[in-house]
């Protein structure tokens, strides 16, 4: 197989669900993981889509990822919850954490949820969307514990993770505003996608092991390892530092430092502090109208080039519309890695061949 595959999202989700069922996940877990990964692809974030499966299978084989694990409440302080994810699937424990936080935000007008020790929680926008769908605003500060990849502004080696920040604002009759990005210049997964496709990454995103700028993604995938740079110079670095401390320390978990390094295994451990607000609890009768007035004012700016003026979240929505209609594209290298992972999960060769015959 040498050309890209184009797979209908529902078919791909069924395949991913089958992989996790073979690996030992309960039906609901297999469904949540499949839905999350495929939704990340639909949103255009291939870095956090089905291409993560081989890494999760490796983490499972190393005894790091714990299947069929649910959040435990470490402290219930009413509007503030501290939850331990027990290294369970982030796709399950973050979903449970958001559900508990939403229930408290409905009760109190706002809630804060500290979730620590979760296995990779994937695309953070997914958790904001869980809040947005119920009409709530949310903010998410996330750290990637013990897996440094990003150099501090002014530094030359990796000291912390790609620490994403995310926020959502639901609109009355429109898609929500969704801000969701890694605080590194590009997400680590985007270096994997470029590496697998034999492409370079944009300038300003990477340095090599000696601190020299490079556009070659192999510095993140082959020793000697280089580092990602923070986005926006000192500003992105400052936000990353706050994500580390709010996501890692305030959530009841740990930050990245010499005692917590986990560079010898495949686990990705996230901590996330989420603030959920009920907009109805504010005395802001013009909130939606003011938001819409601002949006149309901004959109009237004369374009500086060929690019349209977009709102946060519009890029993902456009991808979703396109990919639901035309399928999700998977490059051959990534597909080979996923098929190998499916075999390791215990999928029989006939089942894998039957799927490949459908999509190949
Ligand atoms: N779980 C983890 O440990 C982890 C770590 C890092 C990143 N991530 C996830 O990786 C994904 C990718 O992150 P990224 O940094 O590559 O994202 P990105 O650079 O693609 O930026 C995405 C954000 O920019 C907005 N955007 C894009 N084009 C725009 C435009 N023209 N105008 C206005 N807004 C625009 C999008 O709507 C979105 O909010 C995210 O979903 C993030 O949550 C997860």
UniProtKB/TrEMBL annotation:
The keyword Oxidoreductase applies. GO terms for molecular function: oxidoreductase activity. Keywords: Oxidoreductase. InterPro entries: Mal/L-sulf/L-lact_DH-like_ah, Mal/L-sulf/L-lact_DH-like_NADP, Mal/L-sulfo/L-lacto_DH-like_sf, Malate/L-lactate_DH-like. Pfam families: Ldh_2 (PF02615). Belongs to the LDH2/MDH2 oxidoreductase family. NCBIfam families: PRK10098.1. This is Dehydrogenase. The lineage of its organism: Bacteria, Pseudomonadati, Pseudomonadota, Gammaproteobacteria, Enterobacterales.
């Amino acid at each position: 197989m040498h050309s890209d595959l184009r797979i209908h999202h529902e078919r791909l989700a069924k395949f991913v669900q089958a992989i996790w069922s073979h690996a030992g996940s309960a039906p609901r877990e297999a469904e949540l993981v499949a839905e999350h990964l495929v939704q990340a692809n639909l949103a255009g974030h291939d870095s956090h889509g089905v291409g993560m499966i081989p890494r999760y299978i490796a983490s499972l084989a190393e005894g790091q990822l714990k299947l069929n694990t649910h959040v435990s409440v470490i402290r219930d302080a009413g509007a503030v919850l501290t939850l331990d994810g027990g290294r369970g699937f982030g796709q399950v424990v973050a979903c449970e954490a958001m559900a508990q936080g939403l229930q408290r935000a409905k009760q109190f007008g706002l809630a804060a949820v500290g979730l620590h020790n979760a296995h990779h929680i994937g695309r953070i926008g997914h958790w904001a969307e869980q809040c947005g769908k119920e009409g709530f605003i949310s903010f998410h500060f996330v750290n990637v514990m013990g897996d440094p990849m990003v150099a501090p502004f002014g530094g030359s080696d990796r000291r912390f993770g790609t620490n994403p920040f995310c926020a959502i604002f639901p609109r009355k009759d429109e898609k929500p505003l969704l801000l969701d990005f890694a605080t590194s210049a590009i997400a680590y997964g985007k270096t994997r996608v470029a590496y697998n496709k034999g492409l370079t990454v944009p300038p300003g995103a990477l340095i090599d092991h000696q601190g020299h700028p490079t556009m070659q993604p192999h510095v993140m995938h082959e020793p000697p390892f280089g580092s990602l740079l923070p986005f926006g110079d000192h500003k992105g670095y400052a936000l990353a530092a706050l994500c580390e401390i709010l996501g890692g320390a305030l959530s009841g978990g740990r930050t990245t430092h010499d005692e917590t390094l986990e560079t010898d295994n495949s686990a990705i451990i996230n901590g996330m502090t989420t603030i959920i607000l009920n907009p109805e609890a504010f005395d802001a009768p013009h909130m939606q109208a003011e938001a819409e007035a601002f949006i149309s004012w901004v959109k009237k700016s004369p374009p500086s080039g060929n690019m349209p003026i977009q709102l946060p979240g519009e890029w993902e929505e456009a991808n979703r519309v396109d990919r639901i209609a035309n399928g999700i594209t998977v490059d051959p290298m990534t597909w080979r890695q996923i098929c190998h992972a499916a075999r390791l999960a215990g999928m029989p060769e006939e089942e894998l061949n039957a799927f490949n015959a459908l999509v190949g």
